[in-house]
Amino acid sequence: MARVTGLGGIFFKSRDPTALAAWYAEHLGLQVDDWGGVRFDEDEERPGYTLWSAFAADTTYFAPSTQPFMVNFRVDDLDALLAQLRAAGVEVDPRIEESEFGRFGWIMDPDGTRIELWQPPA
């Protein structure tokens, strides 16, 4: 059975992502990279990492969700998990994105929150 293996990241909307990143850097010591987020490396035995990232308040990346945040979960087998979710009647975005960062798919939870599923590269 395919499953979630960890938290891949938390992404949220902000009226001013640059100022918010500066606040987190000053008060919590987060070292925000040029791309606008922070990467937390974890267990070297398990592929992946966790991200923290503020998006512009008008981003459409979370669409069709109207929630101000999106959760990303690390998964062990994206194709198998998406098939399981479709079979269970979960709303699954038909698009799969592949890049040097891995493979991504999306679902909607019952509250209308967009959930990103991420299979890191091996």
Automatic annotation (TrEMBL):
Pfam families: Glyoxalase_6
Signal peptide: none
Matches recorded under InterPro entries: Anthracycline_SecMetBiosynth, Glyas_Bleomycin-R_OHBP_Dase, Glyoxalase_6, VOC_core
VOC domain location: 6-120
Protein name per Swiss-Prot or TrEMBL: VOC family protein
Organism: Rhodanobacter ginsengisoli
